[in-house]
Design goal:
Number of domains of chain A: 3
GO molecular function (chains A, B, C): UDP-3-O-[(3R)-3-hydroxyacyl]-glucosamine N-acyltransferase activity
Number of strands of chain A: 40
CATH class of the largest domain in chain A: Mainly Beta
Number of helices of chain A: 5
Catalytic activity (chains A, B, C): a UDP-3-O-[(3R)-3-hydroxyacyl]-alpha-D-glucosamine + a (3R)-hydroxyacyl-[ACP] = a UDP-2-N,3-O-bis[(3R)-3-hydroxyacyl]-alpha-D-glucosamine + holo-[ACP] + H(+)
Largest interface: A-C, 59 and 55 residues
Oligomer: homotrimer
Keywords (chains A, B, C): Acyltransferase, Coiled coil, Lipid A biosynthesis, Lipid biosynthesis, Lipid metabolism, Repeat, Transferase
Helix content of chain A: 10-25%
CATH architecture of the largest domain in chain A: 3 Solenoid
Family (chains A, B, C): Belongs to the transferase hexapeptide repeat family. LpxD subfamily.
Largest sheet of chain A: 12 strands, mixed
Shape of chain A: flat
Subunit structure (chains A, B, C): Homotrimer.
Strand content of chain A: 25-35%
CATH superfamily of the largest domain in chain A: Hexapeptide repeat proteins
Strand order of the largest sheet of chain A: 8-11-14-17-20-25-28-31-34-37-39-40
CATH topology of the largest domain in chain A: UDP N-Acetylglucosamine Acyltransferase, domain 1
Radius of gyration of chain A: 29 Å
Distance between the termini of chain A: 101 Å
Chain lengths: ~350, ~350, ~350
C-alpha cells in the first residue's frame, strides 16, 4: 500500500508542508528511514536527524521551528508522537481487514457457513454447522466447535478454543489461548467419597464489543447460558465459571475469578486476582479492589470493597492500618493493664 | 440416529402415552419443534404449546392433566426438565462415542500404537512410541509427546499439550488448553546471581477417572512422578508443581496452586485461588477455604482452614470479624486510657 | 546412538570396571534391562539384581563391595542415582539437539528466514518476515506471528503463541501454551459508560537465557516494549502486563501477576500468586512473599515484604500473629473495662 502526504495528513488531521504528492509504503525511525518511508520527530533532542533523514515524509510537532531546509515532505500536527501511534494503529487495523481467505491446510466441515471477507489462518478447525459472519478473522491453530456462531467483524486470535454450541456476537476480540465453553465444574458427591460428573449441557453467549484477554477460561452453563454482556472487557487468565452473568461494560482485570451462578451487574470494576464466590449478585457500578475476596452479595450500587473477605473500602483501609499497628495497640493494652493492676493494688491498701 | 418413544421412555424411566412407535432424530423447543423432533414441557405456563406443537414426541410431567387431545406421543416422567437434560447429556455422550477415525491432516508417528474406536481430530500430533487405548477421543490441535500413554475411554479436548513420557489412565477428561508435563520450576542459584536450570527428567501420572479443567498446568517431576490420584477433580487454571501428589477424590477449585513436592491427601477440598507452599503434607479430608494460603502441614484429618496464612476456620472467622472491628476496639482502648489517666490523676490528688 | 562404557564414564566422571568397550543404546531398570541397555544400582536393597541383570553396563556407587562376579561392565561414581539422572538429562538434551527439519504439514511464509539445524514440528505456523536463528526448536502447534525474531538455541514448546513484532533472544525456553505479545489491557472510558480500546502497538522483548513456564501471558506494550531481561525465570500461569520491565535474574513463581508499567529490578524473588499494582518500581533484590499484594514502590534494595497490602516482612509476621490472637486481645480489653468500671464506681463511693 502506498499513501501520499496529503492522504496521511487527512488521516491524522495534519497540515502538509512541502511535496503533498510524496508517497510512502512503510515506517522507519527517523535516523534509519529510507526513501519511500514515513518517520516522525517528537523529541527536539533528535532534531538534527530531520535535516539528514532519507525518509520521504516526516510527521513533526506543529510548533517546531526549522533551522535548515528539509528534503522530506512534512506533516505538522499538535503531537507528533500520538499522531504517529494513531497512524500505526490504523495501519494495523487496515492490515487485519485485508487478511482474507484461507491459509491451507484448514479443516472446515462441509456444513459450516462462512461469511464474506473472512480469514481462516492455517490449522484452523471449523466444526459442523458453524456459522461465521462477514469480515471475521480467525488466526492460526484455533478450534471452533460444532454449531458455534460468530458474528461480523469478530477477531479470534491464535490457538483459541471455542466448544460446541457457543455463540459470539459482533466486533468481539478474543486473545490467544483462551477457552470458551469448557465444562462447568460440577460434580455430585457419592456415598463412597467419589464424585459423579454433572452433565454440562448449556453454552456460553458472548455479546457484541466484548474483549477477552489471553489464556482466559469461560465455562459453559450446566443448563442455559453463561453470559458475557455487551461491552464487557476481560483481561488475561481470568476464570468465569458456569452460569455466571457478567454485565454490560463490566471490566475484569487479570487473574480474577468468578464462581458459578454469580450475577455481576453493569459497569462493575473487578481488580486483578480478585475472587467472587458463587450464587451471589454484585450491584451495578461496584468497585472490587485487587486480590479482594467477595463472599456476600453487594446490593448497594457503586459500592467500593476491598480485603478478603471483602468489605467497605474506607473502613477496610482503616482496619488494615490498625491491623498493621497491632503491636502498638497491644503495647498500649499491656501498659493499661499494668496501671489498672497498680490502681487495684493501691485500692486494697486504702 | 432415530429413537422411538418407547426407547426414550426406557432411557429416562418414563411412561409412553400415545404412539410408542413415534420416532425422533433431533431436539427442538416445544414452540418451534417440527415433525421428527423431541420436545419437553416443564413450565405449566407454556402448556398451550403442547396442543399446537408439531413435535413427534413430548416429555411432560407425570401429574400434568391434559385439557385437550395432543397429537404428539407423550412420555410422562416425575420431572420433565431433568429428564430432558439427562437425555441431552446421554445424547452428547453417545455422539462423542461415535466420533471415530482421523480428520486429516493429523501427524501420527509410525511407532505410535492407536487402539480401537479412537478419534483423532484434525491437526492432532501423536509422537513416537505413544500408546493410546481403546475408545480414546483426542480433539483437534492437541499435542501428545513421545512415549505418552493414554488409557481407554479418556477424552482429550482441543489444544491440550501433553509432554513426553507422561501417563494418563482410563476414563479421564482433560479440558482444552491444559498442559501436562511441562518442566518443574527448578533453578540452582549461581555465585554471579544467575540461575542454572535443574533438569526435570521425571513425568506426570494421572490416574483413572480424573477430570482436569481448561488451561491448567501440571508440571513433570524433577525425578520420579507428579501424581494425580484416581477420581481427583481439578478445575480451570490450577497449577500443580513438580513432584506434587494429589490424593484420591480430592477437589481443587479454579486458580488454586500447589507448590513443589507437597503431598495432598484423599478427599481434600481446596477452594478457588488458594495457595499451598511446597514440601508440606495435607491430611485426608482437609477443607481449605478459597484464597487461603497454607504455609504449614495439616496433620489432623478433616480440619477446615482459612486465611493467608491459613489457620483453623472457626477461630480465623472470629479473628477476621474482630479485625474488621479494629477501629471500634481502638476506640474502646482510647476511652479506657482516658479513664485510667483520670483515675491516676485523682489518686495523686487524694 | 551407541555409547561405550568408557564414553559414559567420561561424561559422569566415573571409573570403568570390566569391559570398557561394552556399548549401550538405551536405558532400563536393573531388574528388567536387556543386553545393550544401561542400568544403575543406587539402593543396596536391590543389590541382588546386579548379579543377575542382563544390562550391558551398570552404574554403581564407588563404595559398593561386590559379593559375586558381575557380567555387566560397571561404572563407579560417588552417587549412582545422581550420575544416572545427569546422564538421562544430557541424553534428552542431545535428543532435542538432534531434532532437525520439518514435520509436514507446517506453514512457513515465503518471506521468513530460518536458520540452520532448526526443528519445526507439525502444524507450526511461521508468519511473514519472521527471522529464526540457528538451532532453534519449535514444537508442534505453535504460532509465530509476522516479523517475530527468535535467537539461536531457543526452544519453543508445543502450542506457544507469539504475536507479531515480538523479539526473543538466545537460549530461551518457552513452555507450552504460553502467549507472548497479546494486547495490553487498555481501554479509555467513554461518556456513555462504555470503553474504547487503546491501540496496543508496542511489542515484547525477551532477552537471553530467560525461561517462561506453561500457559503464562506476557502482554505487548501500548507503545514501546514490555521487557523480560536476561536470565529471568517465570513460572506457569503468570501474568505480565503491558510496558512492564522484569529485571535480570528475577524469579517469578506461578500465578503471580504484575500490572501495567511496573518496573521490577534485578534479582527480585516474587512468590506464587503475588500481585503487584501498576506504575510502581521494585528495588533490586526485593523478596515478595507468596500471595502478597504490593501496592507501593519498594525503594530499599533487598527488602522482604508480605501480606496484602504488603509491608515489611518481620513486622508483618508480628501483626499477623497478633491478628490471630485478636479474640484474646479483645478478652483482655473487656476485663480491663470491667475493672476500670469497678474502680470508677468505687471512686464515686469514696
Amino acid at each position: 500500500m502506498q499513501f501520499s502526504a496529503s492522504q496521511i495528513a487527512l488521516l491524522i488531521n495534519g497540515k502538509v508542508e512541502g511535496d503533498a504528492q510524496a508517497t510512502v509504503g512503510s515506517f522507519g525511525k527517523i535516523e534509519e528511514a529510507k526513501a519511500g518511508q514515513l518517520a516522525f520527530l517528537a523529541n527536539p533532542k533528535y532534531e538534527d536527524h530531520l535535516y539528514t533523514t532519507s525518509a520521504s515524509i516526516v510527521i513533526i510537532n506543529e510548533n517546531l521551528e526549522l533551522r535548515q531546509p528539509v528534503r522530506a515532505a512534512l506533516i505538522r500536527v499538535p503531537d507528533a508522537y500520538t499522531a504517529f501511534a494513531t497512524l500505526l494503529s490504523k495501519y494495523q487495523e487496515l492490515k487485519t481487514q485485508q487478511l482474507v481467505g484461507r491459509q491451507e491446510p484448514v479443516y472446515v466441515a462441509d456444513s459450516a457457513k462462512i461469511g464474506d471477507q473472512v480469514f481462516l489462518g492455517a490449522f484452523v478447525y471449523i466444526g459442523e454447522n458453524v456459522v461465521i459472519g462477514n469480515n471475521v478473522k480467525i488466526f492460526p491453530n484455533s478450534f471452533i466447535g460444532n454449531n458455534v456462531r460468530i458474528g461480523d467483524n469478530t477477531i479470534i486470535h491464535a490457538g483459541v478454543k471455542i466448544y460446541h454450541d457457543c455463540q459470539l456476537g459482533k466486533n468481539i476480540n478474543v486473545h490467544a489461548g483462551t477457552v470458551i465453553g469448557s465444562d462447568g465444574f460440577g460434580f455430585a458427591p457419592q456415598a463412597d467419597g467419589s464424585f459423579k460428573k454433572v452433565p454440562q449441557i448449556g453454552n456460553v453467549i458472548v455479546e457484541d464489543y466484548v474483549e477477552i484477554g489471553a489464556n482466559a477460561t469461560i465455562d459453559r452453563a450446566t443448563i442455559g447460558s453463561t453470559i458475557i454482556r455487551s461491552g464487557a472487557k476481560l483481561d488475561n487468565l481470568i476464570q468465569v465459571a458456569h452460569n455466571v452473568e457478567v454485565g454490560n461494560n463490566t471490566v475484569i482485570a487479570a487473574q480474577a475469578g468468578v464462581s458459578g451462578s454469580t450475577k455481576i451487574g453493569n459497569n462493575v470494576m473487578i481488580g486483578g486476582q480478585a475472587g467472587i464466590v458463587g450464587h451471589i449478585s454484585i450491584a451495578d457500578g461496584t468497585k472490587i479492589n485487587a486480590q479482594s475476596g467477595v463472599s456476600k452479595s453487594i446490593k448497594q450500587p457503586n459500592t467500593a470493597v476491598t480485603g478478603s473477605p471483602a468489605f467497605d473500602y474506607t473502613s477496610a483501609l482503616r482496619s488494615q492500618a490498625l491491623s498493621r499497628n497491632l503491636p502498638d495497640l497491644e503495647k498500649r493494652l499491656k501498659e493499661l493493664e499494668q496501671l489498672v493492676k497498680q490502681l487495684l493494688a493501691e485500692r486494697v491498701n486504702l
